[in-house]
Design brief:
The chain is mainly beta. Helix content is about 10%, strand content about 40%. A five-stranded mixed barrel has the order 1-3-4-6-5. A hairpin with a 5-residue loop joins strand 3 and strand 4.
Length: about 160
């Protein structure tokens, strides 16, 4: 039987990310996420549940999270669930699920803060200039004696998507 382990979670960081390094000098960051769920209970009152999950990320993504994230910042993570098991100092066996982060996205832009000016967001393309590229091209020569069966050029503001 096939297995599938995929988690996508969006929430706020519950603590500042803690960056450390493995003996192989691989960066590791650990942080917690809290996700709220609001719903109306059977008594008609609004209720809220909070799900707290620990997360771990390795490599360059770990350094990026450590550099640009802090407690309270929203973050969307994608990864897989991993079960950690250990024995406590009192001899009891413990376990908890953790998200092994494989990818993430910043949810807010934090405009006006040092994070927004740091250069990470500037790596994304500034804008899609396809329409500007069409405007710079010269129109095809028209011949009034021939019937124009060509496909019309790009529409102006009437793009359906």
């Amino acid at each position: 039987m096939a297995s599938f382990n995929k988690v996508i979670m969006m929430g706020n960081l519950t603590r500042d990310p803690q960056l450390s390094y493995l003996p192989s000098q691989t960066p590791v960051v650990e942080f917690g996420l809290a996700s709220n769920r609001r719903y109306r209970g059977s008594d008609g009152q609004m209720k809220e549940d909070v799900c707290f999950v620990d997360c771990r990320c390795y490599g360059s993504r770990a350094e990026t999270i450590s550099k640009y994230c802090q407690k309270g910042r929203p973050l969307l993570v994608e990864g897989r669930l991993q079960l950690d098991r250990w024995e406590a100092q009192d001899g009891t066996k413990r376990s908890k699920h953790r998200i092994f982060v494989e990818n993430f996205s910043f949810v807010d832009s934090r405009a006006g803060t040092d994070n927004a000016q740091s250069g990470y967001e500037q790596q994304a393309p500034q804008s899609n200039n396809n329409q500007a590229g069409y405007e710079q091209q010269a129109p095809p020569p028209s011949n009034s004696n021939q019937m124009d069966n060509s496909v019309p050029g790009p529409p102006g503001d009437d793009i359906p998507f």
